[in-house]
Amino acid sequence: SSRYSGLYCQVQDIDQVPWKSNWLLAYGVVNLLNFLLFWVFVATRYEPVRVYRILRVFYMIQHSSIMKKMLNAIKKSMPEVFGVLIVLGLNIVVFGLSGHLLFSDADDAEANKYFGTINASLWSLLVLITTANNPDVMIPAYKNNRFYVIFFVVFIWLGTYG
After folding, report:
1. Residues 108 and 144 sit within 8 Å (Cβ to Cβ)
2. Cα(148)–Cα(143) distance, rounded to whole angstroms?
3. pTM, full prediction
4. pLDDT tens across 28-71, in order?
5. What angle do the packed helices 134-144 and 65-103 form, to 10 degrees?
6. Spatial separation of the C-alpha atoms in residues 108 and 36, rounded to whole Å
């Protein structure tokens, strides 16, 4: 009887099949993908995308309970992060369109560089919100009219604190 007790302990959780665990299912899918990509590479000697390096992160998460806990914490905080990103995106779109309307008809070629098209104005304000090119975007408009600085101050203030 004692000889089979270890076997019983291993078999009693038979109702926990691997596909009921998301991690084990993902682990199997990633292993299958790695296997298929390996044989495609062996057969063709062509590897258009180096997927193996990307999949190493999954293996690290799979074997670390702390990484799984951190990933669950990140997953729980994502709704708040998406809310902030949506507000920031709306701020950039509204001020980008306004900036394009205000500054694109200027005769200054440098002002048209930042606000000549809608794409350029959105990109300029996206970079401006990181304050990487803070005076560069503002100076051409500031040369035309000193009150345009209010536009940029309100944009940076709303993007940072709003």
Report:
1. yes
2. 9
3. 0.62
4. 888 888 888 778 777 887 765 666 677 777 777 777 888 888 88
5. 10
6. 56
